[in-house]
Design brief:
3 domains; DNA-binding; 21 helices; single chain; DNA polymerase, domain 1; alpha+beta; 14 strands; four-stranded antiparallel β-sheet; five-stranded mixed β-sheet
DNA sequence: GACGGCTCCAAA
DNA sequence: AACTTTTGGAGCCGTC
């Protein structure tokens, strides 16, 4: 059974459909009765159909109402418009409309709003979810069903994590900052430790007025002092010897900490002992989640993870999928040799044991190079050896690269399609292939084609890994609920989850995480004997997880 | 003062 | 260590 949720002038309209999509009944509830009504009807385990999980679900969570299943029409729409499996349908062919716009209420509410921001027209008001749902049902082939339900389940998980939040001890974070930077400075001033390092830098470069935050002036000062560098990036500075290097690298590290995760971050992102990650499911073309706002949920640096501490009587169960992307590649390609290399635990060690390359480091470099499309350096040189040992896996990524170089679409295992290159790209290709095109133009076009090929090459692996992660989380979410709801998903990071749980449930929580990973492998790859081993740590502090 | 481009860095 | 993928944000700086 499905219940389609829609705003109306008198409240919220709930339209019930049976499993064939036929109309069963309709009712209208006031906004204030909405969450109670959802709670009541959740007992019959419907699939809630709504425009945006992000729009509808937070108010339910506020009211203490969890739903088991939903259809997020906007996310499913995006998949249907891009999947190679639906290109002939009217969903894919329809001109862009309000469903293709970002949700009206997604941005941080009313920050910077002024008197002049009169009630904007909300795209959401023009949406007809019932009509859209029926259209999507008609368009979606069975082969896309798993991806569509995983995507919607992911949206529920994202909203729940945002609601619950990751335990974050502000006073621990403050102590950590004070220890590294010195006391919190007044507005407009640098922390003491950074100011001292800035003085050292100016002295070492004999540049008394230098602002080390200005990359341009810093580069000129470095070159004037005789350093042979082309940029001020960390990796280039590290290979140069000069008295300025040590204070400069420390300055850059502290400046990053201060501006990205300093006291200002703490003030704006931690409330009531929780950090509330603002995820955007489907926000990356590959299907990975993105994050929104200054919270930086997907780039929480290791430097500050010490402030993530379980509540009294609780622990954090932290699990990450080891070498996820190469294993995904092995399984997608049905490359028995590579699957076998990972069967004992460490895939890279398995590759070395097979004799393909000499060292674990080389195995890792070669694998990453194959998935990213490296052509140069040690990584590029190692790929032929990898191709001899694992022709199936390498054929898959090379094939995806060729498709992209032709400007065509590739697909993940579950059917998420890659975007097509833009007009500029096509124009460059046709200009370069025209009679009398300059060699410079031809080279630019080839570079653009190769670049798009690297993107599609990586898309199939990164995107399928994201699908595995969605299935993992969707399954885990159900298992944690079955444990009574006390263990809660508190964080997600591409191939890693953090569950905050009462200490006495730590072991069953860890089991649930492992079982969910097995189930995710089965959902994607059936009975193929591919393992996705996890590293699981039960800790007080996130900093101790790895 | 707003805005876009640029550089740099964090995560996977 | 980068090379090679996907992201988001801060700060600087020139342009309007």
């Amino acid at each position: 059974m499905h219940i389609v949720v829609e705003s109306s002038s008198s409240g919220v309209t709930l339209t019930t459909l049976d499993d064939t999509g036929a109309f069963v009944g309709e009712s209208v509830v006031s906004e204030s009765d909405f969450s109670a009504e959802v709670a009541r009807r959740e007992a019959s385990r419907p699939r809630w159909v709504w425009s945006d999980t992000e729009h509808w679900y937070p108010r339910l969570l506020e009211a203490g109402v969890r739903v088991e299943r939903c259809v997020d029409l906007r996310l499913c729409r995006a998949i249907l418009r891009n999947s190679p499996l639906t290109q002939s349908t009217d969903v894919a062919a329809a001109p862009p409309d309000a469903w293709d716009e970002p949700p009206a209420d997604a941005a941080s509410p009313a920050v910077g709003a002024t008197l002049f921001d009169l009630e904007p027209a909300r795209p959401g008001d023009q949406l007809d979810p019932l009509r859209e749902f029926l259209r999507q049902r008609a368009a979606a082939p069975p082969a896309l069903a798993l991806l569509l339900s995983a995507e919607s389940a992911g949206a529920l998980v994202a909203a729940e994590i945002k609601h619950t939040g990751l335990p974050w001890r502000a006073e621990v974070h403050d102590e950590l900052l004070t220890r590294m930077l010195g006391p919190r400075p007044r507005v407009g001033e640098r922390p003491g430790r950074m100011e001292a390092l800035a003085r050292d830098i100016r002295a070492a470069l004999d540049a008394p007025e230098l602002n080390p935050d200005s990359a341009g002036t810093l580069l000129r000062a470095l070159q004037r002092a005789g350093l042979r560098v082309e940029s001020t990036s960390k990796w280039e500075l590290q290979r140069v010897e000069h008295p300025v290097i040590t204070p400069l690298l420390e300055y850059k590290s502290l400046a990053r900490l201060y501006s990205a995760n300093g006291w200002h971050w703490l003030d704006t992102n931690v409330r009531d002992g929780r950090f509330h990650p603002d995820y955007v499911p489907g926000g990356v073309v590959t299907g990975r989640w993105a994050s929104r706002g200054g919270g930086g949920a997907l780039q929480l640096p290791k430097q500050v993870r010490g402030a993530v501490l379980a509540d009294p009587g609780h622990v954090l169960v932290v699990a990450d999928a080891s070498q996820l992307e190469p294993r995904i590649l092995a399984a997608m390609a049905r490359d028995r040799a590579m699957v076998e290399a990972g069967a004992q635990g460490d895939l890279y060690a398995g590759i070395v044991a097979s004799g393909a390359v000499a060292t674990r480091e080389q195995a890792k470099l070669a694998m990453l190079g194959a998935m990213y499309g490296a052509t140069q350096g040690e990584s590029g040189r190692l790929i032929p050896a990898l191709a001899r040992a694992y022709p199936g896996a390498i054929r898959l990524v090379e094939g995806a690269a060729r498709v992209g170089e032709r400007g065509e679409r590739v697909s993940t295992l579950l059917g998420r399609g890659s975007p097509l290159p833009g007009e500029d790209w096509h124009e460059l290709q046709s200009l370069a292939s025209a009679e009398g095109a300059s060699t410079a133009l031809q080279e630019r076009a080839r570079a653009a084609a190769r670049s798009w090929g690297r993107f599609t090459r990586n898309f199939v692996v990164q995107g399928t890994a994201a699908e595995w992660a969605l299935c993992w989380m969707a399954t885990l979410r159900q298992k944690l609920h079955a444990l009574g709801g006390a263990p809660q998903l508190a964080f997600f990071l591409h191939d890693e989850v953090v569950v905050h749980t009462p200490s006495e449930l730590a072991d069953v929580t860890a089991d649930a995480i492992r079982e969910a990973a097995v189930e995710a492998g089965r959902l994607l790859f059936g009975e193929l004997p591919i393992r996705f081993p996890l590293t699981v740590a039960t800790v007080q502090s996130y900093a101790d997880a790895k």
